[in-house]
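Run log, item B.
One chain of 236 residues. Sequence copied directly from the ordering sheet:
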Amino acid sequence: MHGCRSVWQSLLFAMALIVGILGFLTTPASRASQETPRLGQIWGPNQRGYGEPRPASIFNGGDPTGEIDRIEWNRWGSKRSVGWGRGFFVWPGFSVANGQRARARVVAFNLGNCGGRRAYRSVLWFFPQYGEKFHRQAAINSCTGRRRSSSKSHDCSDVHVTRYVLAEEITTFNLKCKAARHLIASSYGPFRRYTYDGGRYRHGKYYCGTEGYGVLSPPVFYRCARDLRSVSFAIR
């Protein structure tokens, strides 16, 4: 009987020793790889969502364009998690004050270490119903708040829309001047209609708009955009 107890005691001691060794071999890095990832970390004041797992809302702490809520995530914890929520879309040619809530797609990716925690280090949301697509280079670094520039801007020469109407102050992003000048010249009908009171319109695949005459008008400022491509110009 005494021999049986000794055997059991020896087995229990051996098991405890194995468990202790396994616990010692489990490094902080391996334990971190098993935890539920968060969305980056807080990188600015008045923020929401950053540093949290599967956040229902994200706010960058500035104007409404940096906010998305009512997020429903899919496959959180996988290499890339995609969800849908409600963001703040500003129609081209209008100010943020005239923006509107719209359904947005949000993507969290670049899984790795952020401040010693397992986290998605990049996040981006966009509006597919307005022609926007996913572009890695346009994402926010959710650990630092930095964003790589996704636009190449150009200042273009003036273009005569008609004999008496001149488009000036032409600036493009990711769009060649020749294409921008053609876009402006071919859209005279729509933008003439909204010169005084302002309005939104489509020209081909571009979303265009103006707020019309203001306190300092003329000129009247317009903007047309399609995903990362856009052109802004003034009509006197």
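Observations after the first pass:
- The helical segments are 2-25, 28-32, 177-185, 188-193.
- The chain has three domains: 2-31, 35-141, 153-235.
Flagged for discussion on Thursday.
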